From TrEMBL:
<dbReference type="GO" id="GO:0004896">
    <property type="term" value="F:cytokine receptor activity"/>
</dbReference>
<dbReference type="InterPro" id="IPR003961">
    <property type="entry name" value="FN3_dom"/>
</dbReference>
<dbReference type="Pfam" id="PF01108">
    <property type="entry name" value="Tissue_fac"/>
</dbReference>
<dbReference type="InterPro" id="IPR036116">
    <property type="entry name" value="FN3_sf"/>
</dbReference>
<dbReference type="InterPro" id="IPR050650">
    <property type="entry name" value="Type-II_Cytokine-TF_Rcpt"/>
</dbReference>
<dbReference type="GO" id="GO:0005886">
    <property type="term" value="C:plasma membrane"/>
</dbReference>
<dbReference type="InterPro" id="IPR015373">
    <property type="entry name" value="Interferon/interleukin_rcp_dom"/>
</dbReference>
<protein>
    <submittedName>
        <fullName>INGR2 protein</fullName>
    </submittedName>
</protein>
<feature type="domain" description="Fibronectin type-III">
    <location>
        <begin position="103"/>
        <end position="202"/>
    </location>
</feature>
<dbReference type="Pfam" id="PF09294">
    <property type="entry name" value="Interfer-bind"/>
</dbReference>
<dbReference type="InterPro" id="IPR013783">
    <property type="entry name" value="Ig-like_fold"/>
</dbReference>
Length: 202
């Protein structure tokens, strides 16, 4: 089934961002001919390999099908290179669980309203929450001065206020999503790029 002449794909890794996942690998270099790739998967529940919709493909990435959207499933994938009748060895991934292994991006900041002693911030989560999810927003903020300490606040709504600020002062903030899943796993997302706003004069 496998041929020693065809090298196996390298750098095989599951890339997952905001619960959208795909398998990626480095191309197999050969002197002639077009190398094709086939990807299989199996779940923790059924220990048998199944075809993904990536059989004899030319690209070096395969997106997870809709059937693998369950975040709590344990999934193992494998990929091999094929050229004519020759096939490389399979390369397996480590077990992947989306709600443990995905990277959560920063929330989208929709609007910021400046008050004399507060900033009112409206955000949107970076992915569609599922029932049972509890999303918090961790907000770090600081005065844009030479030496300054960061303060932190948490909010569970998409509209929240940073209060007790000085008037006519420039404040910066960044926000991370903290997701508590039904399995009580806690995922901390990437921080947003800092944004700065000046409070008004009362």
């Amino acid at each position: 089934e496998s041929s020693p002449h065809l090298p196996a794909p390298k750098d095989v890794v599951v890339y997952s961002y905001n619960f959208r996942s795909s398998l990626r690998w480095s191309p197999v270099e050969v002197d002639r001919g077009l190398v094709l790739y086939t990807v299989h998967f199996k779940t923790g529940a059924f220990n048998q390999w199944e075809e993904m919709n990536c059989t004899r493909i030319t690209q070096t990435e395969c997106s997870f099908p809709w059937s693998l959207k369950e975040r709590r499933w344990t999934v193992v994938l494998r990929v091999r290179a094929e050229l004519g009748q020759a096939a490389s060895d399979w390369v397996e991934t480590d077990p992947f669980v989306a709600e443990r292994d995905t990277t959560i991006g920063p929330p989208k900041v929709n609007s910021v309203t400046e008050g004399s002693d507060s900033l009112l911030i409206s955000v949107a989560p970076p992915f569609g929450p599922e029932s049972g999810d509890f999303i918090q927003y961790r907000v770090s903020y600081w005065e844009n001065a030479t030496s300054t300490t960061e303060k932190e606040t948490k909010a569970s709504n998409t509209l929240f206020k940073i209060g007790n600020l000085k008037e006519w002062t420039l404040y910066c903030f960044r926000i991370q999503v903290e997701l508590m899943t039904h399995s009580n796993l806690r995922l901390l997302g990437l921080p947003s790029v800092p944004e700065c706003y000046r409070t008004t004069i009362s």
